[in-house]
Design brief:
By secondary structure, the chain is mainly α. The chain has a domain at 25-68. Helices cover 56% and strands 0% of the residues. Mean pLDDT is 78; it is low at 75-80.
């Protein structure tokens, strides 16, 4: 799949559910944040392939993220 195809696909689904400004890379951020929250920063670092833990902390650790905010978020992905 080309970058343009991925971009168009993500934008199409985002519009269908009323979301603006969603990019394909946002999914990586979501997964990184979820890995950090559920399994710890080291597991997220390994899964994301970061050489330096500082990179993971900078991009994927959201101290201000309210607990439970993402629970059940991806239960409906199969319906898109």
């Amino acid at each position: 799949m080309s970058r343009t195809s991925a971009w168009c696909l993500v934008q199409g689904y985002a519009q269908q559910v009323g979301l603006a400004h969603v990019k394909p890379h946002d999914f990586r951020h979501f997964v990184g944040t979820e890995l950090t929250r559920r399994h710890g920063i080291r597991q997220a670092q390994l899964a994301l392939g970061h050489k330096r833990i500082e990179t993971t902390v900078q991009h994927y650790v959201l101290d201000e993220l309210e607990g439970g905010l993402t629970d059940g978020l991806y239960c409906c992905l199969g319906t898109l």
